[in-house]
Amino acid sequence: MSHGPSRGRVLSAAILLLSALVWLPGTSTADTPEDGRPNIVMILADDLDTTSTPVWQAMPRTAALIRDRGMEFTDGFAPMPICCAARASILTGEYGHNTGVLTNAGEVGGFETFRDNGNESHTIATHLHDAGYRTGMAGKYLNGLEHDPGHIPPGWDDWNAGVDNFLYAGYNYTLNENGTFVKYGVAPKDYQTDVIRDKSVRFITDAAASARPFFWYAASTAPHFPIPPAPRHLAETVPTAAPRSPNYQEADVSDKPEWLIDTAGVRAATIAATNDVDYTNRLGSLKALDEMVAAIVDTLAATGTLDNTYLIFTSDNGYSLGAHRLTQKMAPYEESVRVPLAVAGPGIRRGTTDAFALSIDLAPTILGWAGIALPARIDGRSLAGPLAGDTTGWRTDFTAEYGGAGASGRDGIAQEQIPGTDTPAIYAFDMPSWVGIRTERYLYVRWYERERPLAEREYELYDLAADPYQLTNLIKTADGRAAHADTVDALDRRLRELTACTGSSC
Question: Is 83 a catalytic residue?
Answer without folding.
Answer: yes
